[in-house]
Amino acid sequence: MPVKEAEHWGEVARGWADKGYANELLAEQKRKTYLSLIARWTQITEKQMILKTDLFAEAFGVEQFLFDLGPVNNNVVGIDVSAEIVKQAKRQALKRGMDAGKYLCCDVKQLPLRDNSIDLIISDSTLDHFPSEADIVTALKELGRVLRDGGTLILTIDNKGNLTYPPYFIVRLWMKLGLLPYFIGRTLSLSKLRHTLEEIGLKLEGSTAILHYPHPDGLVRWLERSLRNLSRGKLDNAIRKGLAFLNKLEGSRIRYLTGRYLAVKAVKRGTT
Q: What is the mean pLDDT of the chain?
């Protein structure tokens, strides 16, 4: 396990609640969006083995969507590079009556799982926190290794085609100035992602762009908090409607120019 990554995310987790990064309405919108995407692209059954590639959302509440799958399938392997995040995610799972026995602290680039052992992988903006594209490719190969023939990968990753996506030197500057709450890494274009998936034996069966609001993320978070504080919650419904309106851009021709994340569905081709 990369020690620096584990230490970084552990530090982020320990200070997350104290630094006021929780945005309930934005998190609520993310949760609804992911649940809708999963429902469109796969049918979850009780017999499936499911892998989720990080547990940050589950550790901190509203944004999580994994616990909502519990009534249908509670057979989930959840992983995270940070022991602190795993601990907090287990605590939240137990509060909701979920089985957290398969939550593991490990690196997605080196999974302690058997080949062809997972039916469904859900990777929600995990791989875009690596410092290089090579790391992303390594992680994708590892996910392909553990996925069963005919199994499905639902993956989201930062969309560099977004009109407001900044050059990476700007991202590095924001991180250096402490304007970002955690490390933002590299990402892949849709064409590069499709090519990589094909190379490792996964067929792209669907793609879209989700969560339509502009960069930088910190500005959007600040705007939500400010409006809610100034209005004492009276504008909450208006903010919800605004986020929902922006989300309708997923159905438009410009979705890849406005969506924050690329979302793809890929299926592992059988080898027999």
A: 92
**Which amino acid, one-letter code, is at 149?**
D
Tally of domains in the chain: 1
Residues 110-145 as b or e (16 or more Cβ within 10 Å = b) = ebebeeeebbbbbbbbbbbbbeebebbbbbbebbbb
Q: How far apart are CA 260 and CA 158, in angstroms?
A: 6
Q: Which two tokens stand for residue 110?
A: 């080196």
- Residues 21-47 have pLDDT tens digits of 678 999 999 999 999 999 999 999 988
Select from 259, 43, 270, 51 the least CA-distant residue to 156: 259
Residue numbers of the domain that contains 81: 3-268
- Rg over alpha carbons for the chain, rounded to the nearest Å, is 18
Give the chain's end-to-end CA distance (angstroms, integer). 33
